[in-house]
Structures are given as structure tokens and as C-alpha cells.
Amino acid sequence: MRGWWAIPALAVAALAFATIDSDSGLRSWWRLRADLAEARARIAMLREDVGTRREAAASLEQDEFAIERAIRERLEYVRPGETLVRLRSADDSTHGID
Q1: pTM, to two decimals
Q2: Residues of the chain with pLDDT under 50
Q3: Which ranges in 6-96 belong to alpha helices (H)?
Q4: Which residues contact 25 (CB under 8 A, 6 or more apart)?
Q5: How far apart are CA 46 and CA 51, in angstroms?
Q6: ∠24-11-7 over CA atoms, to 5°?
Q7: CA 17 to CA 9: how far, in whole Å?
Q8: What is the CA radius of gyration of the chain?
Q9: How far apart are CA 72 and CA 78, in angstroms?
Q10: Do 24 and 15 meet the contact criterion of CB atoms below 8 Å apart?
Q11: Are 97 and 87 in contact, with CB atoms under 8 Å apart?
Q12: Cβ contacts of residue 50 below 8 Å, gap of 6+?
């Protein structure tokens, strides 16, 4: 029973070495977990973007006015006698009206 402390001491030493050593599996595992969390967040954001785009595509397929509005916004199409006013959103780098 004298040497019972050797096993826990060896386990603690191995854990300390694995934590300190940059080439050990623990640091790589921590890095991979962080990368995975970041990738999952990006996937969620992209899925939301896909959903928004699908809704927009569905509205374009069903509503003729939505098609005209999209064309006019994208191509800045102005009919004779109309005036184009473009408002920038608050998160644009410059503020004001074009």
C-alpha cells in the first residue's frame, strides 16, 4: 500500500504535460472545438440566408409587382417622368440620399 500515490501522481503528471505541450491532443482538441462552434454558427447564418432568399424567390414567382420592383431596384430603371430617390440604410458607410 506504500506506492498507491504513484498512480494518481502519474496521471496528474500526464495531464499536466498534455496541457502544456502544444503538440498534444488537448490543445488541438480545444482548437477543433472552437472551430466547430464557429462553423456551426456560420451554417446557422447561411441557413437563415437561404430561407430568406427562398421566400424572396417564391414572392417573385407569385407576384408580378414584386418582379417589377426587383427589376427596378436592381437595374435602377426609371420610367419617363419618374424620379429615382435612393435612401441608404443606417449601416452604410455614408449617410444621405443619392
Answers
A1: 0.49
A2: 95-98
A3: 6-20, 25-62, 64-75
A4: 18
A5: 9
A6: 150
A7: 12
A8: 29
A9: 7
A10: no
A11: yes
A12: none
Instruction: Assess contact for 86 and 97: CB atoms under 8 A.
Output: yes
Of 65, 66, 68, the C-alpha closest to 79 is 68
Partnered with residue 97 across adjacent β-strands are 87
Torsion of CA 32, 38, 42, 45, to 10 degrees: 140
Q: How far is CA 86 from the centre of its chain?
A: 28
What is the C-alpha to C-alpha distance for residues 18 and 2, in angstroms, rounded to an integer? 27
What is the tens place of the pLDDT at every residue in 13-41? 887 877 777 677 777 788 899 999 999 99
